Amino acid sequence: GAGVSQSPSNKVTEKGKDVELRCDPISGHTALYWYRQSLGQGLEFLIYFQGNSAPDKSGLPSDRFSAERTGGSVSTLTIQRTQQEDSAVYLCASSLSGAPNEKLFFGSGTQLSVL
Amino acid sequence: AQSVTQLDSQVPVFEEAPVELRCNYSSSVSVYLFWYVQYPNQGLQLLLKYLSGSTLVKGINGFEAEFNKSQTSFHLRKPSVHISDTAEYFCAVSDEAGFKTIFGAGTRLFVKA
């Protein structure tokens, strides 16, 4: 497709379970970002991949969160032992080269609900 | 490190009235500034951006923003709003030091008839 694709669009899980969220960036975009959107918290930066460079993981809230990007394209965000406070919309974005003056293209997000 | 503060969480306004959504940032180096908009049940999209040059930036749907370096602000304005402008607006900053884009908490604009 032409845009950033995220799956699933909705995920309901039980506390303590692991979840995987997927992001397909726009073809040819070398930079990929994960953000978390919670009510009243805005968009919280989680992690940033740029080409083959080591990812910027400075926004990951705990060691239960991890992300990888295979082959410079698809990315998976994994949350282990989910907690209720992990409930949020997880947004993925991509940009052409990762330069700081570029606009970000966002996916529609994954709504995660932890019961 | 960069940071962004949006001073108003919600702004109610009547249709055809002017509106200003406030944004202040901090950064130790030259910055790039953005406003993104999220309409109900839609994804985020770019409204406008400041990279360099003229401090007054015009975006889509009649919005504009002014970069004020001395006040470290990038407030968003529209002289006359429409019902269709009801959305959440996010200010964002990136710079040559951090590269990643940092967003504010968002301002929810309600336009009333």
Compile the SSE list and pairings.
The complex is a heterodimer of chains A (115) and B (113).
Chain A: E1 5-7, E2 10-13, E3 19-24, E4 31-38, E5 42-50, E6 65-69, E7 75-79, E8 88-95, E9 105-106, E10 110-114
Parallel strand pairs in A: 2-10
Antiparallel strand pairs in A: 1-3, 3-7, 4-5, 4-8, 6-7, 8-9, 8-10
Chain B: E1 3-5, E2 10-14, E3 19-21, E4 24-26, E5 31-38, E6 44-50, E7 56-58, E8 64-68, E9 73-78, E10 87-95, E11 102-103, E12 107-112
Parallel strand pairs in B: 2-12
Antiparallel strand pairs in B: 1-4, 3-9, 5-6, 5-10, 7-8, 8-9, 10-11, 10-12
Could you give a quick summary of the protein structure above?
By secondary structure, chain A is mainly β. Chain A has strands spanning 5-7, 10-13, 19-24, 31-38, 42-50, 65-69, 75-79, 88-95, 105-106, 110-114.
What descriptive keywords fit this protein?
heterodimer, A: 115 residues, mainly beta, Immunoglobulin-like, six-stranded mixed β-sheet, four-stranded antiparallel β-sheet, 48% strand, B: 113 residues, 12 strands, 53% strand
CATH superfamily of chain A: Immunoglobulins
Question: What is the CATH T-level topology of chain A?
Answer: Immunoglobulin-like
- Categorize the overall geometry of chain A: globular
Distance between the termini of chain A: 32 Å
CATH class of chain A: Mainly Beta
Identify the CATH architecture of chain B: Sandwich
Which outline of chain B best applies? globular
Average pLDDT over all residues of chain B: 92
Structural class of chain B: mainly beta
Largest interface between protein chains, with number of residues from each side: A-B, 24 and 25 residues
Instruction: Report helical residue fraction of chain B.
Output: under 10%
Provide an overview of this structure.
The complex is a heterodimer of chains A (115) and B (113). By secondary structure, chain A is mainly beta. Chain A has one domain: Immunoglobulins (Immunoglobulin-like, Sandwich), CATH 2.60.40.10. Helices cover 0% and strands 48% of the residues of chain A. In chain A, the strands form two sheets. In chain A, strands 2, 4, 5, 8, 9 and 10 form a six-stranded mixed beta sheet that branches. Chain A has a four-stranded antiparallel beta sheet with strand order 1-3-7-6, with no helix packed on it. The N and C termini of chain A lie far apart (32 Å). In chain B, 0% of the residues lie in helices and 53% in strands. Chain B is built from no helices and twelve strands. In chain B, strand 10 (87-95) and strand 11 form a beta hairpin. Classes of the chains: A mainly beta (115), B mainly beta (113).
